[in-house]
Every structure is written in C-alpha cells, then in structure tokens.
Amino acid sequence: MTFVRGTKFITLFVFCLVISSLLLACRPRSAEQRYDLKGKVVSVDKRGQTVTVAHEAIPGYMEAMTMPFKLKDERLLGELAEGDNVQATLVVAGMRSWLEDVIVTREGADPSSLSKDQQQPEPKPGDEVPDFALVNQTGKRITFHQYRRRVLLVTFIYTRCPLPDYCPLMTDNFSAIEKSLSATPQSYAKTHFLSISVDPEYDTPKVLRDYAAAHSADLNHWEFAGGTKDQVKQIATYFGMRYWPDGDQIVHSLRTAIIGPDGKLVRLYHGNDWRPEQVATELRDAATPDEGGVSGDSSHGIGVVQSIDRENAVVQIDHGVIKDVMPAMNMPYKVKDNSLLDLIAVGDTIDFWVERTPSGLVVTRIVKQ
Question: What mean pLDDT is predicted for residues 117-123?
Fold first, then answer.
C-alpha cells in the first residue's frame, strides 16, 4: 500500500510539473531585446533628447556605425560630452529603443565632432517659411508655396533607416494621423503631408514611390520628396535638423513641422515624443481655426499641469501671465472638450488657450510642449 500511495504521489507530482512547464511555456515573452553596446559619443542633442554614438558592431543586431539613441535616464544628457567612451545596454522594444545602464569613461572631447553638434538656429512660430523646392516621388518639381491655403505637415526620413523609433516611427505616425484626418473629410482636404528624404542619392523617385506604396500612403495627400543634396540640406538646416552620412547610413536628429495655410510656422517638434493624436488635433485647429476651438477672442498661456479631473472636465495649471486676462498663478480651468485631457499628463509643460464664457474662463485648446 505504501508503494501505491508513493506511486500516486509521484504521478501527481510529475503531472504538476508538466502543467507548470506548460504554463511557463505559455507565458508571454518579453518583447524587449537587449544588446551590449560600446562606442564613443559624437554629439549630444539636449533639445532632441538624444546622444549620437559611434559604436562598435552589435552582434546579432547591427554593424558598426554612428547612430542617435534615446537614454532611459535623460539626466545623463547634461553630463555626457563629445569624446566620452560609453558602455551601455541597447534595449529594443518594438518601435522603441533606448540605452540604459550607461557607463561613461571620459578621455576628453573629440574636436572633429564639434562642428556636427553646433545648434542650428531654428524658426519660431509665426515665421514665414521660405519657398523651398524639391522633387517628389513622380519626379515632379514641387515647392512649399504651392501648398498655401492648406496646412502642411513636414518631417524628415530616409528609407534605409534601421532604428525603429526614428524614420519608421515617423512614417507610422504620419499613417496614423492620415487615418485620423480621413474621418473628417473637411480637415483632410485642408491638410497635406510631406516626408523629405535626407538620403536623396539613394531615395530616388522610384524608391520613394515603392516606400509610399508599402505604407499605403495616399499620394494625393501625402508626398515623398528628395532633390539635390543642397536642396535637402537647405531645408533641413532651416528647421534646425542635423545629419551626416556614415557609411551607407545617415546619422540624423528628428524634426517635424506644421506650417499654416498662410505659409507661417505653427509648430516645430523635436525628437519623437509627440503623439499622432496630438498632431492631428493641431492640424484640425490650424485648418479650421474658427471651428477648432481657437477664435480671435482666445488668449494664450504656458504652464505646467498640476492635476487632471476628468469627471468634472477640469485641469489645474501652474502658469505664467496670460496677457490682459490673468496674472501668473496656479489655477483650475474647465476644458471645452474632455478629449483635451487625453493629450496631457500631470507634470507636462503645455501651451493652452482660454476663452471668456458666462461661466468663466474655459480652456479651448491644449498643446503639449
């Protein structure tokens, strides 16, 4: 009897082990992949929140090249300098990647890299954008002024870009915005997209057409363009974007611009932290300012979100002076539309617009900085 009970116990134990193994096997694996990275800092872009590293080959992921990376601990941007040797873990998670566990060894700056990290002057909202010329995916010459009376959304890419949270992310974001705008035909008709390649020698019109097709782009609404090296460089420099070739890759920062129907800059985004729904809202507002919640009676303020009360449609903002409306203070405001609260989080620095109503000041528009 003892032997039988023991056999049953062993059988039950083995059964439990099998079930446990199956459960472990069915547990979803982490989407994150980790690689060891070693290299030298070429430049630090604090505005774009990236560090560009000339790194050694990363076995199983990419060959040696110079690439920009996000940092998990952004405080390091204030400590890193050109010429620093770094060891880190490169984490790739779907469309996102970053460096963590960064170890820095300082041997002095690399003078040859300083020219690459010069901060380019950038246009400010309200500045008129020059009539730049390019060649689109059909080989046709296009100019910025031909899009007057529409809101133009511009970004920079190149089709061979290997980092998922750079060019591929910009293109995916544009696809998401286009889908969002297509739900409101009036906004769709009053907007236009332009993706400019910083690798025009490789990204010929045919390559750009194929790239557009692969992303199901509506070429009547979203164009892809290149041109001569000088043409592309002139536009990129104007928007404060830096890039340079490194083998068959392009090292580059990120810039995305919204240009109003009058040809003046509405917004310039650095990096890749902006969200498609945020930009879609801005495009609708710029395309139909009198219908998008920003009328001539609106006043602009800048502040930091302190709290969000979605149930009562209220946002608490610690803001500076709102000219002719309100002194600097920490104050709760009702929002015109609850969807505005989905664009922000506590701690965000925001631009916001308020209007006077019989019940008091109401926030009609919010843009995260």
Answer: 63
Q: Which phi and psi angles does 360 have, rounded to 5°? A: 120, -170
- Kindly report the average pLDDT of the chain as a whole number: 83
**Cα separation of 182 and 286, whole Å?**
16
CA 167 – CA 164 distance, rounded (Å):
7
With CA atoms as reference, report the closest residue to 317 among 294, 346, 343.
346
CA 10, distance to chain mean position in Å, is 57
pTM listed for this prediction: 0.58
- Residue-wise DSSP of 27-84: SPPPSEEEEEEEEEEEEEETTTTEEEEEE--BTTTB-SEEEEE-BSSGGGGGT--TT-
What count of other Cβ atoms lies within 10 Å of the Cβ of residue 332? Answer: 12
Give the span between the Cα atoms of 276 and 273, in whole angstroms.
10
Helix (H, G, I), strand (E, B) or coil at 325: coil
174-192 CB burial, b ≥16 within 10 A, e <16: bbebbebbeeeeebbebbb
- Cβ(251)–Cβ(67) under 8 Å? yes
What is the b/e burial string over 20-51, where b = at least 16 CB atoms within 10 angstroms of the residue's CB? eeeeeeeeeeeeeeeeebebbbbbbbeebbbb
pLDDT-derived band at 120, boundaries 50, 70, 90: low
